[in-house]
Amino acid sequence: MKTHYLNYVAGLSLIFLMASCGNQGSETSQVLGGSAAEQAYVAPGEYDEFYAFMSGGYSGQITAYGLPSGRLLKEIPVFSKYPENGYGYSEETKAMFNTSYGEVPWDDSHHIELSQKDGEFDGRWLFVNGNNTPRIARVDLKTFETVEILEIPDVAGLHCAPFITENSEYLVSGTRFSVPIPQKDVPIDTYKKNFKGLINYVSVDPEHGHMELAFQIEMPGFNYDLARNGKGKSHGWSFLTTYNSEQEHSLLEVNASQKDKDLMAVINWKKAEQYMKEGKFTERQTSYFHNLMNEETSIVESEEKTLTKILDPKNCPDMVYFIPVPKSPHGCDVDPTGEYIVGNGKLSADMSVYSFDKIMKAIEEKNFDGNFDGIPIINYEAALDGIVKKPGLGPLHTEFDGRGNAYTTFFISSEVVKWDVESKEILDRQPTFYSPGHLVIPGGETKKPDGKYLVAMNKITKDRYLPTGPELAHSAQLFDISGDKMKLILDFPTKGEPHYAQAISADKIQPNSVKFYDIEQNKHPHATLGESKTRVERDGDEVHVYMTAIRSHLAPDNIEGFKVGDKVYFHLTNLEQDWDVPHGFAIQGATNAELLVMPGQTRTLLWEPKKPGVFAFYCTDFCSALHQEMSGYARVSPKGSDVPIKWGLNEKLRENEQAAHDFYEKAKQNANIGK
Ligand code: K7E
Ligand code: CUA
């Protein structure tokens, strides 16, 4: 969000600084009476009504909160490696970070999109963008795990992403920075001649959710900022705000704010589909990665793709239009009926609301004001439904309550403003503390919002929480919007910097939540499906340890014969078939991470012993009363030593599978060991 901040001209920044330093804390303590606290109170043992999924901004991750309590339920790692559970460090998940730039272990994520069916959330998947290395990720909401990441080629900064269509047909995105396409070594001041934009359509497989780059539309070299797709009557259309129609390449905060209006791109994607079918595209060689978790093995498979299909508006009439929007727009939001499209100009005093019917009529009547690179510019007045006059300063994002009202955040004047979509009349305004970016109403961008709560995600929190050094907690503020006036009922800190969030009724997710992975379905090639199959195998310098975990021991727990310079792969299978019994694995000298293995799952940690000795390993998750006993030893001998590979658990160390088998057969008879 600092980028937004920098975009404001100096004068407005000053206003903003003054506004946010005011001592407004005392005001809220009055507002927050006992009844407000009660509204956000979820008693111990009770569940929240909604899940809220917040992007982590520069953390690259997603966090899941309960609403209305604001309780943090989970951090879901997506674009950044996560040593807490080994995501991105385990051999199975490393490939999730493959890109055309090599391994990229972090990113900046802004926009969450839940999958939709008929314009409503269906609770199946969660999509989020990677901003810096342009990518879109998919999280499976049955497991809250990132299962797929698709890179988008030839774009720079995938901020404008991933916006979903009403049946999850496509995720629409646009390039934030225009660049030479294909990339080439040219002087930066040849921007106008050489730099181009792309709008990307990624299809989503309706059954499995798999993403595929369907086509890209070549666009003028602007900055594509945010988008929404039509719904209901406007289904089949996309609306994208852009800035820098000046096509400047330096000091954008001044140079990209010269014109009174920028342009909103309006795309008829059904038409684009038709042109694709007719073969009106060109193909270009490129490079991008598609990383997908194989559901059977639970291993990420990574594939480099080399071809993309491009539609050029010049060869595809009636597919792309522009509409003038107020200066330096940000959010672009479509109301639940699909009729109204709100364009927020950050530097404009007013907000423009467009009518889909009027846009269609203007197109039909060719009511255009010239064109940009051959793309018709629809007459502003002809497309306009009305203007929200003087709503506040620095409008960013708008959501809807399904009762005909819109709610817009104002970054500079630090408030949420409620207004009537049809009459454009302002109905209420409530201060936020301070400088909100996005806001979210559960289902607030769908056809059926659940207009009970609103969460404003704030950028500045001075004086709201105990200090935590130079960086203060980011903050969300929960409003009750069920009445005429919005009512602030809760502050809660957030992780990273949330940009967008989406919230969904818990009953769409809770019943499908997976309790454990079925071990019978575990097709991991290094899975160990039973303690009797545990073993250690050497293959040159590589050693594979087929290890299992069940309360409260790791098997084998004594291993000898490792040598300095070996690459040791610990393939740990968690044999539990019970809810919430992960086992962990850590070994001294490991320089990557620890593992957290879910019940029924197999995960692999690479350990490269550097010196001789005996090293302890243990379970890192306090899994039972005897968790502290869940440990073992690995003996490392010098390079070139002839100490043989041997392993065991409560037995004389053995060297081969037959010995293992015999041991466990006997053990079973004695019923000492379960599996
Ligand atoms: Cu307004 Cu990146 Cu959607 Cu930040 S963005 S707030
Ligand atoms: Cu398993 Cu602690």
UniProtKB/TrEMBL annotation:
<dbReference type="GO" id="GO:0030313">
    <property type="term" value="C:cell envelope"/>
</dbReference>
<dbReference type="Pfam" id="PF18764">
    <property type="entry name" value="nos_propeller"/>
</dbReference>
<dbReference type="InterPro" id="IPR001505">
    <property type="entry name" value="Copper_CuA"/>
</dbReference>
<keyword id="KW-0186">Copper</keyword>
<dbReference type="InterPro" id="IPR015943">
    <property type="entry name" value="WD40/YVTN_repeat-like_dom_sf"/>
</dbReference>
<protein>
    <submittedName>
        <fullName>Sec-dependent nitrous-oxide reductase</fullName>
        <ecNumber>1.7.2.4</ecNumber>
    </submittedName>
</protein>
<keyword id="KW-0732">Signal</keyword>
<dbReference type="GO" id="GO:0050304">
    <property type="term" value="F:nitrous-oxide reductase activity"/>
</dbReference>
<dbReference type="InterPro" id="IPR041114">
    <property type="entry name" value="Nos_propeller"/>
</dbReference>
<keyword id="KW-0479">Metal-binding</keyword>
<feature type="signal peptide">
    <location>
        <begin position="1"/>
        <end position="21"/>
    </location>
</feature>
<keyword id="KW-0560">Oxidoreductase</keyword>
<dbReference type="InterPro" id="IPR026468">
    <property type="entry name" value="Nitrous_oxide_Rdtase_Sec-dep"/>
</dbReference>
<dbReference type="InterPro" id="IPR051403">
    <property type="entry name" value="NosZ/Cyto_c_oxidase_sub2"/>
</dbReference>
<dbReference type="InterPro" id="IPR008972">
    <property type="entry name" value="Cupredoxin"/>
</dbReference>
<dbReference type="InterPro" id="IPR011045">
    <property type="entry name" value="N2O_reductase_N"/>
</dbReference>
<dbReference type="GO" id="GO:0005507">
    <property type="term" value="F:copper ion binding"/>
</dbReference>
